[in-house]
Structures are given as C-alpha cells and as structure tokens.
Amino acid sequence: MTTKPPSKITDLVPVSLLNFLQKFYLNYLHTSATIYERDGAHATSMITSRYCNRLADACEAKDGKGEGICHKDRWRVSKKSIDLNKPYNEKCSGGLIIHSVPIMLNGTPIGAANAAVSNPPKDVEAIKKIAERFKKYEISIEEIKKLSEEHEDYPEFVLDAAKRQVETVAKTVATFYEIFYKLHLKEEDLAKQITRRKQAEEKLQHLLQGLHVHQKELKAQNNDLRQIRKILEESRNRYADLYDFSPLGYVTLDGIGCIRDINLTGATLLGRKQLEAAGMSFSSFVDKSAVEIFYNHLQRCKNSGDEVVTEALLRVKDGRPVDVQLSSLPVYDAKRRAILYRTVITDITKRKQAELALKRLSESLEQQVTERTAELTKTNEELRTKLVERKRMKEQIHKLSHAVEQSPVAVIITSTEGDIEYVNPYFTQLTGYTSEEVIGQNPRILKSGETPPEEHKRLWETITSGGTWRGEFYNKKKNGDLYWEYVSISPIKNAEGVITHFVAVEEDVTERKQIEEERKHSLERLQKALGGTIQALVAMVEMRDPYTSGHQRRVADLAPAIAAEMGLSSELIEGIRMAGAIHDIGKIAVPAEILSKPGKITETEFEMIKAHSQIGYNILKGIEFPWPVAKIVLQHQERMDGSGYPAGLSNGKIILEARILAVADVVEAMSSHRPYRPALGIDTALEGIFKNRCILYDSDAVDACVKLFREGGFKFE
Fold it and tell me: pLDDT tens, 229-249?
C-alpha cells in the first residue's frame, strides 16, 4: 500500500450501505443493532422493537444527551469484543443478550458490529431487577412486564441464526472496507495514468483514423445491445404482469418469516399494499391460534429441503379471517442454511366454508336418517293395516317430490322414447324454458351442435342397455347463450326390472370451465415469456464468443437425443434441452479476448474460464424453472472421478442430467473448431469419450452417444 488507510469505517464505506446491512441483516430480530467505529463513534445504529425503544427513549430523554444507559451497554460489549479480538456477548440493562463481533482488517480491529439476540425476560425476578436499574428514568415494573409480554418471541433456531448474522455482517463490513480502500488506491493510480496519457497523446494521433472506424463498429454493437436490452425489458415486463396478476399469491420470506417480496395478489389477500407488506413479519397476519403452526411449517420446510404444504388461518388488515394453504420451498446458501422461503398462498376460504357446510349438512342428514330410521322402525311395528302403510308411502312420495322440486340441479324425466315428461324449477332457471314449453319435446332442443353425434349414440346405447351415462354437454339456452353442464342419465325400472323412464340430473359447470381455460392461457403466456428470455440470453453469449457460435444450440440438440436413447421421460428430456441451450451462459462474465485467444491460455485465464459454471448457476438460480436447470449448468463440468469443477463432485453426487450434458458438451467441443486448435472430427471425439468411459464420463451416456452416431445416423446441423 502506498498510503495509510483512513482511520474510520465511514471514511470509505458509504453510510447508506452500512444502513442497508444493518436494516436487513444485522437487526435480524428487529430489536436493536449498532455498528461502532474503533473509538466508540456510531457508524450506524437502529432500534426497532417497542421494548428497546421505550427503554432507550426514557433514559436518553432523562439524561438529555442522547447517549443513555442503552448506548453505554452496547458500547461496553463492543469495546470488550474489540479488546479481546473475538466475539463477546453480555446482557444489557434491559435483560437482552448483546452479541458483539469485532470488524477485523488484516488482524486489527477497526470497529465492531452488535445486535440484541435474545427475547425479553419473562421471569418476574428478572423484570424487578430491570425496573430497579431504570427506576430513575421513571419506568414502572408494570410497564416493563407489559412490554415484555407484548414482544413476539422467536424460537431458539431463529436466535442462533441472529448470532450468525452479526458475525456475517462484521465480515462483510471488513470486506467492503478493504474493497473501497483498494478503489481509493486505484483512483490515485488513475491520476498518474492520466498524466502519462497526456504525454503520449501526440504519439497516438496517427491512430485516430483507425479509432474512428472502431467507433463505428462499437456504435453498431451498441445498437444491437440496445435491441437486446429492449427485448429483455419487454420479457421482464410480461413476466412481471404474469407474476403480479396471477390468481395465486406469491411471497418470499426470509429466514425468520419476514416478507422480502410479495406479488399484487398476495398483498391484496393480506389487505395491504405491496410496499407496505414488504418487511413485515408474516406471522403478524397469522391468527394467534395458528402462529405455532406457521413457525413449525417453516421449520419442517428447512429440515426437509422439500416442498411443505400447510393450512393456516390468517387475520387480514380489517380483522377478517381468511383460510389459506401455504406451500413453501426453502432456498439455501452455500453452507446449506435456509435463508429464504418461496411460498405460494392459496385462498381456500370458500372451500373451507363448503366443507363446513357439507359437514353440517352431513351431520344433519345423519341425525335425520337416525331419527327417521327410529321412526320407521317404530311405525313398522305399529302399522297393522294397508291404509296406514299407504299413508306413509304418500308422505315419502310427497317429500321426494319436494326434494326434486327444490333441488339446486336440473332434473329431467323422459319416456323410453326420449320425450320430456317432467322438469323441475331449476331446469327453467338454467335453460330459460318453462315446463309448458318442453313437456312432450325431446331434449335435443338444447343441442348447440358442439357435441359430436357419436357421443349421443354412445349415450343412448348405454342407458337403453340399463347402464348410467355420465359426461359433459356444451348446450344452448333459450336465449341462445351457450353453457357447459355435467349430466348423469340413468334408467328407471319397475318391479319387474323393465325400463319405464329415464332420469337426467344436470349441473351447470360453465364457471369451472372458464376458470380452467384462463389458467391454461396464463400458463401458455408464462412459458412463452420464459422462452423468449432464454433465447435472448443465448444470443448475448454467442455474440461475445463468435468462435463457439452455435455450440450451445448443437449441445441442446445432442444432449436430449442421448437422453431419449437412454429411455428417459419426456419431461426430463425437455429439462436437459433447456439446460443445454444456456449451459455456457456464465461465459458472459469472461473477457471476450480470453474466449477467442488463439494461443495457450495462462493458469489465471483458465481459472477465469472455469468460473463460468458457478456464474451461470448464480444467474439462473433465481429463475423458477420446472426443471433443475441451474444445478445442471453448475455441474456440467464435473467428472465421474472427481477431477472436474467447480466442486470436484464424483459418481452419484453428480445429477444424471449434468452427466448427460457433460458428454454432449465434450463431443461437440472436440468435433468443432476452436481458436486454439482446428476441429478434431467426430471420430476422434467419440474415441475420446469412450476411452474415458466410467473414468470421466457416465458409461450409459457414453454408450447412448456412440450408438446415436454409429447406428442412429445422428449428425450436427
């Protein structure tokens, strides 16, 4: 270093960046957090819980200096961790554990980060001691007890995560300090370079013409880049619309259940605006009876690593109860710690209401059946004459008639020739035809012409042979409107088993059909937008690397062909095709001069190229593909013996899709021209993978690939 680094953190690291780290990471439990300079000055500080705010405000107002007992507690713990050069924690005057971690630069502390990482004490004796400490600040024991009880306690695993967040923030601030200091040095070097450049300007005059030509080329490239950005922006806007106006609520929760992001549907369901909901704890919308269920849901999701589905009761802004289904998937960091939860919220209030109504109806019917059975049993024992029996039968027929008349579905009775003899009132409500208009008519008056004649033939053959036909019709009402109905038609037989009539029960399912069609269109639009985005990304990569132009496309042709030869499912094949089309997207971060370098590359340059798998994974991991595309891209350079990169995985630790893509990638690369060598040809490529079968490459994938070229006639286009 040419100069001694500034003494304070805020001399180099922007306060806005420190505030961001403090708000979203350091203040993990939303209590209090501070980043101190080595001399005790605040770099940034925050108190958010009612418990901490009340204690801090009281002592600061009483002291009149803005630095009361709360500040002294936090600085005492931080100074101790700075003096010890290691993490240190101690309870503050308010009974919370303050966990402090020194911010180290080259083995020397330059400050400290601390945060409250425990729940307020609930023990009466502990609260009395706190009240004694704050007695001169006019805070009563009753007020402290109330504040403690109102505080929403976090489970133990969240408190442990909060401690780790303090350590992470301390390391991050040190890293930012070092980065900004290096930038500071580069600014000094830049000033010297400007001076030398002015001295060399006279020597570069003869290159102006060449630069002018190059400028035109750059202008053309910029035009292409603007067009690509426009395409990406349009795709992003389409995706945003689909995301926000989806019929389902989508929300991203952090490790302790706070809302990081939420779509319009989800925010509307919670009775909040999107910006208002962001940052709030999701548990604040959960009914008190379901808070434990919600945290258990997150814990099960974290432990299993798979999708977890739970039903819970929410209380939205106006206090209205809403039954929902929560479906969550965890997102892990590099150390397999759950840092986010992708959650889908489905409003199941109507379903719950229907289930409750059905349950009540079932209980009522069971009670009625029980009562009626007892009544019939008693009546059967008492009845002695046919007159009494006939009276009972008339009563039953009367009830059945009322049930049919008041049924919420249409009921039609026809003769064996198909002529209508009876329709209930709901038939008129559904079709618009009165009973007088349809008696004696054939049900074909409802035909719209949309149902194939063969279906009507199958219907007639089924019911005339004594069976029951069930299916859907797209019929026409009296006013010409078309509607969907689910129909069940059965024969009515007499005591001898002879069919005397047919009865049809028809249910209007038009609304359900419309919802199904809308969902289908929404999925098609989403898939189209995703496909357009992927094609734009592919084009960007190949524009920067003209020597391998078409490489991803050819790999995307060969890899799914190998998978098909191996007998894999169509869904798996499509995922491999998608991963093949963008498997080298990480090369967008590799300088173009390295990718097109004709000679041997240096070890440093090779390390930069090797990073493309990890970079590609980082780009794609946030996109919700139906397949593990990001993981396939991450592992496509791994080898069976563990000699690959970036993680050195081996054998079964490499997913099957990545092993197939690795074979296709190598065969295409060896058979094609590269800046550092001419094309080796397909025979050499096949010989190379077969030679390393079971060593570097999956044996099944190699066998399938060789068979494709040798016997299947596969060729690269």
Answer: 676 676 666 656 667 777 888
